């Protein structure tokens, strides 16, 4: 049996466009440029700078980002209109430009948002794609918005007509976050059959059910070539697929599923912290990879195991993501952590003394009182170490 060569998955970052358009995430042109250069340094393949026709800020940011990128390609978003396409080309040029034209995938969007028929939507997308190609755009894309609620026959027609018109990239969006991994994987399998290589397929998932990463991975396994993500998963409503989650999954499970990414895992956390500064995003406690306590524990039974071998409760390694593990002392900590610290300090105590120290330093803590193990070590050293002389 011949083993397939693993496929490299391209990372398409939409922090500056889909992430930024969500409530409270507004960024200036300078902010976008700052983040774009940091994101490019991670080895990301494509950076979506904005929707140039939507505002002067997006136009200016796209122009600045496009001029500054040295390795990553720049992406833009346009409605299926020639004037939008022309504005995007004015902002980003044609070379190294992935120009995404919004195709409409569901009847609910056609009727209630656009007020047009399926056939009109297809003709608009085809016309915009041909126009973009005529302007020298390097990669013309027709994305399928709300694809997961679309009729399969219509989606096939839209995909095949887009490819005939020159589209070489088809991003598929679970816009309302309504799909399951099995449903989304099946949809990508179908679209892959309608748009065979060298046309590339992208996956763009939202997190309304909390399964954006799972859906994105299912789509990649089904044959998609890239994944559209945001740093920290920021984006509309519950957010987008988080870059760090996908990259972590591929780092640990990629060999098993035959996929890999070359993104810089260790650098993503510093980019996330810069993003938080710009949009004033509070630090979450329990978010995967980036949560304040994602690599911390306060439970005594966990600490007892981790003091012997961190792998007992730590599958994802913090150092790979520029993080550090932390043992946090709280009312839930046990005597094992005290024995460990007292041993480090060279203090020998009996059971009665240990029980008293446990009562004073751990048991009587307020429920919310929590500190790093290093702080307790200093306190124990100051209180219990013998006085010289």
Automatic annotation (TrEMBL):
Transmembrane segments: none annotated. PROSITE patterns: AIPM_HOMOCIT_SYNTH_1 (PS00815), AIPM_HOMOCIT_SYNTH_2 (PS00816), PYR_CT (PS50991). Pathway: Amino-acid biosynthesis; L-leucine biosynthesis; L-leucine from 3-methyl-2-oxobutanoate: step 1/4. This is 2-isopropylmalate synthase. It comes from Streptomyces sindenensis. Keywords: Amino-acid biosynthesis, Branched-chain amino acid biosynthesis, Leucine biosynthesis, Manganese, Transferase. Residues 9-269 form the Pyruvate carboxyltransferase domain. The lineage of its organism: Bacteria, Bacillati, Actinomycetota, Actinomycetes, Kitasatosporales. It is an enzyme of class 2 (transferase). InterPro entries: 2-IPM_HCS-like, AIPM/Hcit_synth_CS, Aldolase_TIM, LeuA/HCS_post-cat, PYR_CT. Its EC number is 2.3.3.13. Belongs to the alpha-IPM synthase/homocitrate synthase family. LeuA type 1 subfamily. The keyword Transferase applies.
């Amino acid at each position: 049996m011949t083993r397939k060569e693993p496929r490299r998955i391209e990372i398409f970052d939409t922090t500056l466009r889909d992430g930024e358009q969500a409530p409270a995430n507004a960024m200036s042109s300078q902010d976008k440029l700052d983040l774009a250069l940091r994101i490019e340094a991670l080895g990301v393949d494509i950076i979506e700078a904005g929707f140039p026709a939507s505002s002067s800020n997006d136009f200016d940011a796209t122009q600045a980002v496009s001029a500054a990128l040295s390795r990553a390609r720049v992406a833009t978003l346009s409605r299926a209109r020639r004037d939008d396409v022309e504005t995007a080309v004015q902002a980003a040029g044609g070379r190294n430009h992935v120009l995404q034209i919004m195709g409409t995938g569901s009847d609910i969007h056609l009727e209630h948002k656009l007020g047009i028929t399926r056939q009109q939507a297809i003709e608009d997308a085809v016309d915009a794609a041909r126009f973009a190609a005529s302007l020298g755009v390097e990669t013309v894309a027709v994305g399928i918005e709300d694809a997961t609620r679309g009729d399969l026959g219509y989606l096939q027609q839209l995909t095949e007509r887009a490819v005939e018109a020159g589209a070489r990239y088809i991003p598929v969006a679970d816009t309302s976050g309504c799909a399951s991994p099995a449903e989304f994987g099946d949809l990508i399998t179908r679209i892959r059959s309608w748009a065979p290589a060298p046309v590339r397929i992208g996956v763009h998932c939202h997190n309304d059910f909390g399964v954006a990463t799972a859906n994105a991975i299912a789509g990649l396994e089904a044959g998609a070539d890239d994944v559209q993500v945001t740093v920290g998963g920021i984006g509309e409503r519950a957010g987008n697929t988080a870059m760090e989650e996908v990259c972590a999954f591929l780092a640990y499970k990629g060999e098993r599923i035959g996929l890999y990414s070359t993104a810089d895992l260790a650098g993503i956390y510093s980019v996330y912290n810069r993003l938080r500064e710009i949009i004033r995003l509070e630090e979450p406690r329990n978010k995967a990879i980036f949560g304040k306590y994602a690599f911390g524990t306060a439970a005594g039974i966990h600490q007892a195991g981790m003091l012997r071998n961190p792998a007992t409760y730590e599958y994802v390694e913090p150092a790979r993501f520029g993080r550090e593990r932390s043992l946090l002392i709280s009312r839930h900590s046990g005597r094992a952590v005290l024995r460990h610290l007292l041993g480090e300090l060279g203090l020998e105590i009996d059971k009665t003394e240990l029980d008293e120290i446990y009562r004073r330093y751990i048991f009587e803590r307020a429920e919310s009182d929590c500190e790093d193990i290093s702080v307790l070590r200093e306190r124990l050293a100051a209180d219990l170490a013998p006085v010289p002389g």
